[in-house]
Amino acid sequence: MARKAGVSIRTKVYEKFKGVDFTTDPSMVSDDRSPWAVNMISDNGGMPEKRAGWKSLAELESEINGLYLFKYNGAEHFLIHAGTKLYRWYGGDDTPVQLMTGLPDDRSKGAYMNGAMYIFTGNDYIFYDGTTIGSVENIAYVPLVTIGAKPDGSGATSHENVNLLTGKQRAMFAGDGSSKGYHLPVHPIASVQSATVDGAAATYTADLANGTVTFTTAPGVPQIEGQDNVEIAYTATTSGVNRIKHCRQCIAWGINGAEDRIVCSGDPDYPNYDYISDYNNPAYFPDLNYSVVGTSDTAIMGYARINDELAIIKEDRGNGSTVFLRNGALDEKGNAVFALYPALAGIGAVGRFGFGNIGDERLVLTGNGVYAITNNQVISEKIAQNRSHRVDPKLLTEDLSEAVMENWQNMLMIFVDGKVYILDGNQKSYSASDSTDFLYECYYFENVPARCVLKVTRQGVETMYFGTEDGKVCRFKTDIQTMDRYNDDGDPIYAVLSTKADDDGDPMVLKTLLKKGNAVTLKPYARSSAKLCIRTDRDTVEWQANQGTMDIFDWEDIDFSRFTFQSNDGPQEIPVNRKVKNYKRLQFIIKNDAVNEGFGVYKLSKHFVTGNFAKR
Questions:
Q1: Which of 130, 142, 431 is nearest to 283 (CA)?
Q2: What is the pTM of this model?
Q3: Looking at residues 400-405, what average pLDDT do you find?
Q4: Using an 8 Å Cβ cutoff, are 313 and 301 in contact?
Q5: Are 550 and 524 in contact (CB under 8 A)?
Q6: What is the tally of helices (H) and strands (E) in the chain?
C-alpha cells in the first residue's frame, strides 16, 4: 500500500558532538557521537577538531626503546635508549651523543631519584647523573653486615642487610691483642679487599675457602672499650645481583607515597618477586626487602600509585588475585615495614607499559579493555570498572602486549601499532550499568608511530615526545599556534568525522534530502576546508557531495594561493547543494586531508521530507 508523500519539511541538526562509539552498528549510535572519526579530538569547548601534528627532532640508526628526562646543573638532559646504545641529547638541534653501548635491544624502564636517572634494561641496572654513567653495581653500597664480633666470629650482632646488588660486604670485630685469625660471617668467600686496624691498613693473608683472615700482627684491643677496631671488607661468593639487574619494571615509591625508594620486578626467573631499595638509596637493595606477590605462574606486570599505597598488577590467568596493595610504615625503632595484601582479581595487565591515570583514577590496560581500580563505598573494597567500552571493539583487536599508556592534558592516551585510543577525562557520561558507573568519551588517532612515549611538563604546560621503530624522536606540535601545527612531519593529517547512519526514527519510511537548506558549520581557522560525502543505505562512500574552503585573513599566516579578505572569525557554513531521493538511512561524512589546515565541526543541518513506505 502506497503512502502519500508528506509535504512538511523536517529538520535534523547534529551538534554538540562528543567522541566515537565503535560498540554498535553505525545506525544505532547516539546523535551526538560518531561511528567513525579519525584524528579528531575535543577542543577546549568540547567540540571536535583536527588533532595537532607531530614532527621528528632527532634520528638514530635503531628503534627507540626508551626516552628519559632530568635536569643537571639547570639544563635538561634527554636520555635516548636506541637499539643497544644509550645517548644524551639536549632536545634541540644538537646531535645525540653516545654514552654507552651493550644494552639489550628491548624497551627499558627508568625512574629518577637524587639527581640521577636509574634505568632497568632487563640485562643491567644502570645510572646516569649528568657526568657519570655505568652499572649501579659499580657504585653499590657496601653494607656493614656484622659488628661486635670476637676474632672467632662469636658474639657478632647483625647490623645491615646484605645488598642484593653486590657480593661486597664489611664486618667489624673487637681485637683481643693475641688472636691473629679472624673468622668472617660467611664462607667460602671470593676475595678480601681490605683489612684495617684502628683505621690503618694492615697486612694479612686470606683463606677464601674457610672465610678467614690471618693478620701478620695480632690486632690490639680497642682503644675505647666496647668499640670495634678491626674492619674487614670482602666479597661473598653468592649475591642476588642478577635478580636486580634482570628486572624490567620499576617505580619510585615509599612510605606515605613519597618517591624515596625504587621498587622493581620483572626477573623472568622470579616473575612474582619484587624488591624495594633502601630509603633514598637506589644503590642499596637489602636482601630482606623483597616480597613474593601471589603465585609464580603469574608475573608482575607493573605498578600504580593509589593514594599512599602501591598497587602491584599481575597477569590474569584466571587463578587468583591480580592486584595487590602495599603500604608502608615505620616501626617503633624507625625501621620501614611494608605490608602486602590481595585487593582484586580479574583485571590482570596485558603488557608492561599499560598503566596510566586520569586525575587520581588509576587505569590498567587489560585483555577486556581499560579498567579503573576504584573503591566501592558500600563494601569498602577495591573493584574494577571498565572505562573504554566505546572503543573496545576496535581496541581489543590490537596486539596490546606492546601498547603504551600515558596521561596527557587530562586524557589517557593508548599508543599501539601507529594508532592512539584516547579516553577524555574532561568528558564523562554516566551509566546505570552494573559494570561501570561512568564512561569516558573516546577518540581515535592514526599515523602516530609511537613505540615509547615521554610526557614533559614545563611551567605547567605538557608536551608529549615519542620514539619510533625507525629511530626517530618526535614531538607533538602543541606548542605551535599557526597552521604549521597541522601536519605530520610535513605530511597532511587525514581527519574525518561522520554522523550516524540515521533513519530519523523510522527505517521503513523513505526520505528525500532537499537540495537546499543543508550545510555543515565549520570552526573558523586561518586556513580550513572540508570535503563532504553523503552515504545512504544503497550507496558506497564517494567524495562527491560538495567541498569548500573556509579561510580567514591573518597577517601572520598568509597563503597567497588562497588569499582572502574574509576577516570574520565566526563559524562558517559549507552548503550541501545536493538532492538525495528515496533513502532509508543517510549518513554525512566530513573530512579534511590538506596539509597545514585546521578543521573542526560545530554542527550539521539537514532538511528532508518523508515519502512512501520502503518495500524492503
A1: 142
A2: 0.91
A3: 96
A4: yes
A5: yes
A6: 2, 50
